[in-house]
Design brief:
- Helix 10 runs antiparallel to helix 11 and helix 10 runs parallel beside helix 12.
- This protein is α+β, with helices and mostly antiparallel strands.
- The two termini are 22 Å apart.
- A hairpin with a 2-residue loop joins strand 6 and strand 7.
- The protein contains 14 helices and 13 strands.
- The strands form three sheets. It has a six-stranded antiparallel β-sheet. A five-stranded antiparallel β-sheet has the order 1-6-7-8-10, sandwiched between helices. The protein has a two-stranded antiparallel ribbon with strand order 4-5.
- The chain is 34% helix and 23% strand.
- The chain folds into two domains: 242 residues, no CATH class; 127 residues, Serine Threonine Protein Phosphatase 5, Tetratricopeptide repeat.
Length: 417
């Protein structure tokens, strides 16, 4: 078997939640859960006005403004530029039963072992993260986009932070006393083997318990541009502090009217709108629930999204208790996926059977309904029913779910011309 079977999240493909790898470092039992990546931007042009009056650009990097020295800076300084990114990612997290998003900006970073001499450069990757209420997504992409007009969004961050060199770690054990002999470069290694997701969750826990105070904020600047034949969006990250007077000055039009005259990132409008909308699709309007069934169902969806499958199943079962005669196939689809991810494959198949029996009432729901065949096939596969899995995947493919083809090829010996 040359790949892992992946279940499919409704509306957006599902990626496995990164779980705690070394829980012996600290107890994560009561920590919030952060979802996998919901959406991302992996490519943009970075522009900067040069000191000679021309514009310079680079992929995923804002070049320095000194045109004469852009090619001969020491170490890796030229490679990282004024700013750069590897990816800009959006996650979701629940804090005190409120919906938040985590914006993660990963970038190339580095430092000199001997900074004054600018010797012995070391490359590594770092990230910045910004945690904000999910409602802010609507401000980042309003329903009526003001093309050719700049606007700023005060993200009012719950917490911001930076994780240096998030891919590596060293053991700084007391018995070895490595810090006594370490050069400056080791300061930017992680002190534990925790993943960056765990470190963010740990920082949230410290914030909730009062061990740290957040005073950081993010102003997200957006400039949608529409010309005759194209639509582009320019964006900037403006780091600041949670100070009302400072925020008032930063967001004053007098102060930011020249904001995009010196540097910015630029992407196609479709890329930016997809980045926001894919995350916004996970936002659940809890206050619109009119019955207890709706309320429990919505909470089940929220718990499912962030990977809390135990909580999701509990909520879905409560919803079912309120309305055991529901004819919403998505209820059974969600509960089936939840049970499957918990290893309850037989129960999951029963839910998928019910979802398939409930024909969608709207054409727009048809693609989601078809995926029940695919996901039922996954559950059957885990129960060693290969023939049944291949039959369901073939049915999903015949009904228009093209992604089933690779499973038919890899696990069923199916060939396609």
């Amino acid at each position: 078997m040359n790949k892992n079977i992946l279940l499919i999240l409704w509306l957006i493909p599902y990626s496995f939640l990164l779980t705690a790898q070394n829980t012996d470092y600290y107890d994560l039992q009561d920590f919030p859960i952060m979802s996998p990546v919901q959406s991302s931007i992996t490519h943009a042009l970075g522009w900067s006005m040069q000191d000679n009056g021309t514009w310079a650009y680079a992929d995923n990097k804002i070049p320095f403004t000194d045109s004469r020295s852009n090619a001969d800076r020491p170490g890796g300084l030229n490679a990282i530029g004024q700013d750069n990114f590897i990816s800009i990612e959006m996650h979701k997290i629940m804090l005190d039963n409120e919906q938040y998003n985590v914006l993660v900006k990963k970038y190339h970073d580095g430092e000199f072992e001997f900074p004054y001499l600018q010797r012995n450069w070391r490359d590594f990757k770092s990230l910045d993260y910004y945690i904000f209420r999910s409602e802010k997504l609507k401000e980042m992409l309003p329903e009526e986009v003001p093309f050719n007009t700049m606007y700023l969004v005060d993200m009012r961050c719950y917490m911001v932070g930076t994780i240096k060199n998030y891919e590596e770690s060293v053991f700084m054990g007391g018995s070895l006393n490595l810090t006594r002999y370490a050069t400056k470069v080791t300061e930017n290694f992680q002190a534990t083997r925790a993943s960056y997701q765990e470190q963010i969750i740990r920082a949230i826990q410290q914030r909730k318990t009062g061990k740290v105070i957040n005073d950081g904020n993010l102003i997200f600047a957006v400039y949608p541009i529409r010309s005759t034949d194209k639509e582009k969006v320019r964006i900037k990250f403006i780091k600041g502090y949670m100070n009302d007077n400072l925020i008032r000055m930063q967001t004053s039009p007098d102060n930011w009217k020249h904001l995009f005259s010196e540097s910015f990132y630029e992407v196609d409008y479709s890329v930016y709108s997809s980045f926001i909308n894919q995350s916004l699709a996970y936002y659940v309007e809890l206050d619109q629930a009119v019955t207890m069934y709706d309320s429990h169902y919505n909470w089940g969806v929220l718990r499912y999204q962030i990977g809390d499958y135990v909580g999701a199943l509990e909520a879905f079962n409560k919803a079912f208790a309120e309305n055991p005669d529901t004819e919403d196939f998505m209820f059974y689809a969600y509960r089936g996926n939840t049970r499957s991810k918990m290893g309850l494959q037989a129960d999951a198949i029963a839910d998928f059977d019910k979802a398939i029996a409930l024909q969608p009432k709207r054409i727009v729901d048809y693609p989601n309904w078809v995926r029940n065949y695919f996901n039922r096939g996954v559950a059957k596969y885990y129960l060693n029913n290969g023939a049944g899995a291949c039959e369901d995947w073939k049915k999903a493919y015949d009904l228009g779910y093209g992604s089933a083809s690779e499973y038919l090829i890899d696990f069923c010996g199916q060939k396609f011309d």
